[in-house]
C-alpha cells in the first residue's frame, strides 16, 4: 500500500499547545489579580454604614461592569501571548494563518475558563444556583434565622405595662428549640417552593407567636404578616440579583472570547511579520 504525503503540508501541528497553555494561564492569573484588586478597592471605598452606600441592585450592576473589564483585559493579554508565542507555520496561506491565530485565542480563553472553573467552582455554583435557590444557602440560614428571632421575640414592654394576654414564653410547656424548629421549617418550605404558607400553617404560626411573645392574637397576626412580606421581598431581590450576576458572567465570557481571538490575530500577525507596530 502506497502512502501519499502532501509536500505542502507543514510537519508542525496546527495547534501550538505550549502557546495556548501559556496564554490561558496568564489569562487566569491576570483575571484573578484584577478581581482581587476590584474587591479590595470596593471594600476600601464603600462602607455599609455610609448614607451613600450602593443598593444591592446597583452593586450588582457595578460588579457586572467590572467583570466585563476584567474579562476583556485578561483575555486580550492571554490571547495576544498565545498568538505571539506560537510556532510559525510553513506553507499555510494567509487566510489559514488568520484562522489558526483566531483559534489559538479562543483556545487560550477556553483553557483559562476551565482553570478558573476548576479552582473557583464553589463560587460559580453559588452564582448560577442562586437564581434557583432564592439567593443560596446564605439567604436560607441568615434571613430565616433573623425572621424567626423577630417572630418569637417577647413583648417585654407589654409585660411591663401589664397588658399582655399571656406571659412571654408560656407555650404549654413546649421548649423554645422545638418552636424555633417549627418556625424555621414553615418559613423554609414556603420560600423554597415559592408559595404562600398554607392557611392552617399560618394560623398555627400566629398562635405560636402569640404564645411565645405575649402579644394578643391581632398583633401576632400583624407581626407574622410583616415578617413574611419582608422575607418575600428579600427573596425576590436575591433572585433578581443572582439572575443579573449570571447574565453579567455570560456577557463577560462572550466578550472575553472575542477579545482573546482578536488579540491572538494581532499577536500572530506580528509573529509572522504581516503586521507592524507602525501600521497599528
Task: Explain what the structure shows.
This protein is mainly α. Helix content is 74%, strand content 0%. The chain contains nine helices and no strands. Helix 2 (56-85) crosses helix 3 (94-119) and helix 4 (121-130) packs across helix 9 (217-272). The two termini are 52 Å apart.
What is the number of beta strands?
0
Backbone shape: elongated
**What structural class do helix, strand and pairing data support?**
mainly alpha
Order of helices and strands: HHHHHHHHH
The low-pLDDT segments are 124-137, 276-280
Beta-strand residue fraction: under 5%
If you compute it from the alpha carbons, what radius of gyration comes out, rounded to the nearest whole angstrom? 29 Å
- Fraction of helical residues: over 70%
- Describe the biggest sheet? none
For the record, give the distance between the C-alpha atoms at the N and C termini, rounded to a whole number: 52 Å
Number of domains: 2
Total count of helical runs of at least 4 residues: 9
Mean pLDDT equals 78
What is the strand and helix layout of this fold?
Blueprint: H1 17-45, H2 56-85, H3 94-119, H4 121-130, H5 137-152, H6 156-161, H7 176-193, H8 199-213, H9 217-272
Helix pairs in contact: 1-2, 1-3, 2-3, 2-9, 3-9, 4-9, 5-7, 5-9, 7-8, 8-9
Main attributes?
single chain; 280 residues; mainly alpha; elongated; disordered C terminus
